[in-house]
Amino acid sequence: MLNLTKVGRRFFSFSRSAYSKKVAVIGAGPSGFYTSLNLLKDKDPALQIDMFEKNPCPFGLVRYGVAPDHPEVKNCQERFQDTRNDRRFQYFGNVSVGSDIKLKELYDNYDVVVYSYGSSLENKLGIPGEDDHPAIINSRAFVGWYNGDPDYRDLDPPLDKVDSVIIIGNGNVAIDIARILMAPVDSHWKTTDITEHALRILKKSTVEKVTIVARRGFLESKFTNKEFKELLELHNEGVYFGGWPEEKFSSLKDLKLGRVDKRRLSLVNKYKSVIDEEAKDAETGKVKKVWYLDYLKSPIGFKVDSNDPSLLEEVIFRDNAITIQHDPDTGKYKSTITPTDGFSSIVCQMVIPSIGYKCEPMEEFEELGIPFDTGRGIIPNVDGKVEGRDDSFCVGWIANGSRGNINSTVMTSSLLAGIIQDQLKVVADGTDKPGRTSTESLLENRKVRVVNWDDWVKISEYERSQGEPKGKPGEKVTDYGEMLKICK
Amino acid sequence: MFRLALSRNLLRAVTPSLRTTISISHGYPASTALRSFRSFPAAFHGEQLTKPKPGEELHITFILKDGSQRTYEVSEGDSILDIAQANGLDMEGACGGSCACSTCHVIVDPDFYDKIPEPDDDENDMLDLAFGLTETSRLGCQVHMTKDLDGIRVALPAMTRNMQNKDFK
User: Fold this and answer.
1) Which parts of the sequence belong to the FAD/NAD(P)-binding domain (chain A) (predicted)?
2) Which residues of B touch A (CB under 8 A)?
3) Is CATH 3.30.70.100 the classification given to domain B58-168?
4) pTM for the complete prediction?
5) What are the tens digits of pLDDT across the range B15-33?
6) Interface test with A, best of B3, B39, B65, B120 (most A CBs within 10 A)
7) ipTM for the complex shown
8) Edge-to-edge strand list for the sheet holding B137-139
9) Which of A16, A191, A384, A388 has the greatest CB tally within 10 Å of its CB?
């Protein structure tokens, strides 16, 4: 059947393509890049995408989040390089939206603004000490430290004074951190792009025990089986899985679990026996490096070591009870967690809270009428379209919170690009926004040192050349000033 | 995680028209031809494939997200991901085909599914993270063409909107 409205709209949109389709993207992480790449599939020469990044270097969490021993996950950087072949796209590195260029100016210059600037805050436990004790280090700082984020390069975690570490939260970040703490430097890390300052401290590390603690149950574990198995497989490098509180979850074996849960359960059962056979040192009878999973514990306090106040002595937990019920609507099991009167503690000298991240609104949001959900730390949106706005979109963590992986990023970015394209056809009301020319002259007048893509290539080549003699794929420059010098 | 029994219907539904598909193109040397088109490289990210020897061509049909179909003549050993990328199809392959993501997820025609060697644990763990998982889902980077698979049909999973926070929890 012929739908005349559709045909009409289609024709209309074609006739509109001469108007400007100018897009500003804020944040050069994977969601910003994938959205741009998907938009560029539209071959309309009127399309213009300018990407703004406050750091000189692009790639966001691919550079500063993905673990150094996951080079395959970073392969998407190759794909992001494709943007340089397309003149409709331009990278504006070292440009801070809000100070170097006002957000309002972006709205004046572009038809559409895409927020993809991710998160800048960490979720808090709400326990005294978590912000100011040197042995309580948030995952955000710890990950930034080993990945070369300039903000955290001087973190110097006291790993040479510690033998037991607790990681609170059990997402993939927690698993990454456990691997960093336990896997041997020489066989595992030396030839990755981990920073030299992290290698230096890891070499002196005396950590022998890591406990990954979550307040909820086994079925609510946030890590993926892929990451979990990788950690379990470290027994090949002398790092053993010490077990989990299976007595608390004895009912699981009677449940009809889904594939993912079943596999997780089979993994713990398979690898917990590995320790019995191989783990003990023949001479001392002691297991050198062991990690544990623990569940149903909510941290309520840190006890500082009375001999060395720069370290902890133990973490106190409130024990939780769990009831698992089958939800006939979803066909899944639902756990209810309730606090009990019981308390427990785990001895440790250092704690790494790893319970997710939060995003912040930009300064001009209120003034420009861009909504922000402070509770959830996201821009409220429907499929990435900012609530109540036709000219604003968001993608990645700023849209969904700190969850998901490269798969969900690829998926949501692709969906969003479609929505933006539809919107660009409607938005184009005949006014031609000035776009890039205006932005460039603005930044030039303000003497902003813009890092363009060729500059970034210089930095990246420098990093590669610095890594080469050490057998590393790259040695990251951990100082923004130095980056600017390199690409001068 | 859910494994929908969609694939059977999806693939059956398009089968009749498949018989009349004529457009056969080659998985080569598309990349060079396309790279010279200035605005296209950004959207294109392909592998070079070797041309199949005469008489040894294998056939694969992709059912795209919009329901249209493309058939290619390819060589034994080519992976589904490489074929898709060499032909500019919309398959991401974010990790470069190292089984570290699930962005090359395809739904395989049930008639061919059992002819492919079973997925290993690593592939299954990645498949569990794919959107719209079905009983015959595979990762394109892990499936390589063999004579048994000549004529295979695979569908690129359609994405759905209204996919919000709840889907990531």
Assistant:
1) 21-233
2) 1-3, 38-45, 90, 92, 94-96, 98, 100-103, 121-122, 124-126, 128-131, 159, 161-165, 167-169
3) no
4) 0.87
5) 434 333 334 444 444 333 3
6) B39
7) 0.81
8) B24-26, B69-74, B58-63, B152-155, B105-108, B137-139
9) A384
